[in-house]
Structures are given as structure tokens and as C-alpha cells.
């Protein structure tokens, strides 16, 4: 449905996208994850044909609906008037505009607010109206730029449910977010973008199966010092994060780690106040992928 090969986008000397490759299959939700400035909007703007790539091939096979990161409306119009305008611009007949608008207002939960001015809508309501606009032409593919990120938990859930429903009815979705838990809830596959490069890609099951490893959280009485550096020299240590007096050690070989970590801690002679093992979360995987790329 969507195929991107060797996608490069530069602004002057600044290479914002550094040779991206990915595919979005028919009827899947593809979650595009990355920090602010990673290049998500740039990628979506290329997919919508709003901007041209510097290099690479992009094919989007199907009709598209697009929801920008911060959709703008004529705030003096009501929700119903705005949808009517969209229908008119798109060349629908009067009766079709009325039917489609009513359907969409119902779908996105704005029926009772249809006659209120958009200027008085909450952020969540504006986002849902933007979603209705994206759906107006009954597209096969939705391109959604951070559709839920600025919303409160309730607004987020409503938006994610709408996206899921679109997929359940046969649609294909490409959506960006910097909130992993949102993507974890609805995405079939995830691509992690960091500074213009894809650092990890796969289905949630694949990523979890391959990358979920134990993490030891060890809390010390005093500042940690040089211990992380000492541990990073060990082949069974995957990575280390330090927050205050807590050191989290990501493990690549759990069998060796079980004995070796305790031995090294004992040698280190620093008072330990707690020692716990947990499974890494998707958040840890994300942090690790981004850090390794850096
Ligand atoms: N027109 C432009 N001219 C120059 N640089 C740009 C332009 N548009 C984007 N950039 C730069 O490209 C990089 C990626 O921006 P982009 O908006 O794609 O990131 P993003 O992942 O969508 O982040 P955000 O969530 O903050 O929008 C940023 O460093 C940005 O400053």
C-alpha cells in the first residue's frame, strides 16, 4: 500500500531524512515513533505529496485522507458548516454532502456540537473534526500526524478507538506519535525513527520477542561513580542507564548475569540498598534503540 525506498530529505546542508526504507501493508496500522524533530512530519508531508523528497522512491497506492499535526479551521464556522465546505470543495452533490456530514458528525461524536462554532471547540473536538475531514472522501489510507499526542487521556482513547474502527472496516493507517503506549495499543507494526534514520522496525510481537530482556535495577546508598563503565566492559551487559543513585543494567546474557553481576557488586564494595530484576518494557527498547543509534 505504501512503499518508501531510500528516502532522503535535505534542507540545505541539514539532512532531515537519511535514507528511509519501510512498507505499510494493506489493512495494517503502522505506528511511526520518534522524538520531536526526528523527521516524522517531514515523512508524512512527503507521503501526502505536500513536499518533494530530495532522493528516493515513494509510492502510495490508494486514496488518502490526511490529518495534520495541528489542523486549522475557520473558527467562525460551525462544525457542520466546515464539513459542508469540505464537501463542496471536493465536488460532492448537495444531498451527498448532507448525508456524509451527518454520518461523520455521528461517527466522531460531534453531532450535538455540529451547530457550535469551531472556535469554541476543545482541542479534542477539533482533532475529531479534523478526523472527519480526513475521512470525508472515504479514503483507503489515513495519514495521521500525531493525532492523539496533544489530547488528554479521554480524548486520546476516543481518537485511538476511531483509528482502530477505520482499520476494522478495511482501512490502512500510517500514524506518527512520540507516545509509545498509544502505538502499543493499536499499531500492528512499529518503526522507530531517530534523527532521520529508522533504528528499529517490526511487529510488536517480533520486537518484544527479540528485545525484551531482563533489567536489573540496583540502588546504592551513595553516588555511583565508575561502576557503570566497569560493567559496560562485560559482554553480557547490553546497556546501562543511571538516574541519581539507581543504576539500571540491561542484560544480553541472563545466565551469566545472574552470578557475575552479584560478584562484581560485591567487589565494588559500595553499599546497595535495593536489587531487583524486571523484564524490560517497550519503553526501554525504544530508549535503547535510540541510544545505540546515537
Ligand atoms: N522547511 C524546513 N526548513 C528547514 N528545516 C526544516 C524544515 N522542516 C523541518 N525541518 C527540520 O527537520 C527536522 C525534522 O522535523 P519534523 O517536523 O519532520 O520532525 P517531527 O519528528 O515531526 O517532530 P515534531 O513532532 O516536533 O513535529 C527538524 O530538525 C526541523 O527543524
UniProtKB/TrEMBL annotation:
Alphabetic keyword roster: ATP-binding, Nucleotide-binding, Transport
Matches recorded under SUPFAM superfamilies: P-loop containing nucleoside triphosphate hydrolases
One GO molecular-function entry: ATP binding
SMART domains: AAA
Domain ABC transporter, residue spans: 2-220
The organism's place on the tree of life at top rank: Bacteria
InterPro entries linked to this entry: AAA+_ATPase (IPR003593), ABC_transporter-like_ATP-bd (IPR003439), DrrA1/2-like_C (IPR025302), P-loop_NTPase (IPR027417)
One Pfam family here: DrrA1-3_C
Record family assignment: Belongs to the ABC transporter superfamily.
Protein name according to UniProt: ABC-2 type transport system ATP-binding protein
Native organism: Alkaliphilus hydrothermalis
